[in-house]
UniProtKB/TrEMBL annotation:
It comes from Flaviflagellibacter deserti. Pfam families: FCD, GntR. InterPro entries: GntR_C (IPR011711), TF_FadR/GntR_C (IPR008920), Tscrpt_reg_HTH_GntR (IPR000524), WH-like_DNA-bd_sf (IPR036388), WH_DNA-bd_sf (IPR036390). CDD domains: WHTH_GntR (cd07377). Residues 11-81 form the HTH gntR-type domain. Keywords: DNA-binding, Transcription, Transcription regulation. Coiled coil: none annotated. The keyword Acyltransferase does not apply. This is GntR family transcriptional regulator.
Length: 224
């Protein structure tokens, strides 16, 4: 369900509508069900408390960024990738994050890595038992590794993929022991970063993400 809140009036309504809709889409489980996700201008207008004009302007911006697409005579839909496109997305993410992990071995401070350990724990972290909580921690872990690499272009490129990576991981973590595998592999990645072992950190991150691709290949049910 798309969660939206009424908007204020201190910033342009188009900008506010854009920010609210983008945030709502980012938080959606876009692969959690089979039916396409259609955006209704009238409902969005009522939910945000504005006219349809800023809604349409915001949707135009979102379409330019690839978050939504317009289908003639059918409406506006949240973009969902095909299985082949998802596998490509995961592969690109693997390249970006593995390089970020290599860079983080030099760029990240000891304080940064202690923070990573504190936030995401070890493979025996009891918080990992809650799937919903872990799903949020999971994507935050990967975003943190990207950030700790200290390369702003990698951060920007990864941000363009985060909508689908977040949704893909949210689905997969609930399937066939993926949560336990993820926790164990995260612990190994943190250890490699703490040891400043760039080769091992890069390898573990790449294998971890490509393991997600293999899992999606076997179990993923996505639009064709």
């Amino acid at each position: 369900m798309l969660r939206i809140e009424p908007l204020g009036v201190n910033v342009s309504l188009r900008t506010l509508a854009y920010d609210a809709l983008k945030k709502a889409i980012m938080e959606m489980d876009i692969y959690g069900h089979e039916q396409p996700i259609r955006l209704d201008e009238r409902q969005l207008s009522q939910g945000l408390g504005v006219s349809r004009t800023p809604i349409r302007e915001a949707i135009t911006l979102l379409e330019q960024e690839g978050f939504v697409r317009s289908v003639p005579r059918r409406g506006i839909f949240v973009v969902r990738k095909t299985k082949a496109e998802i596998l490509e997305t995961i592969t690109v993410w693997a390249a970006l994050e593995s390089m970020a992990a290599r860079l983080a071995c030099t760029a990240a401070s000891d304080k940064d890595l202690k923070g990573l350990r504190k936030l995401y724990g070890s493979e025996n972290d009891p918080d990992g038992a809650d799937v919903n909580d872990y799903s949020q921690k999971n994507i935050a872990f990967h975003q943190t590794v990207i950030r700790l690499g200290g390369n702003s272009l990698i951060v920007d490129l990864a941000q363009n993929l985060i909508l689908h990576m977040r949704a893909i991981r949210a689905v997969s973590v609930r399937q066939e022991g993926r949560l336990e595998t993820s926790r164990r592999e995260h612990a190994g990645i943190i250890a490699a970063l703490e040891e400043r072992d760039a080769d091992r950190a890069e390898l573990l991150v790449r294998e971890h993400t490509l393991g997600l691709a293999a899992h999606v290949e076997r179990h993923g049910v996505f639009p064709e």
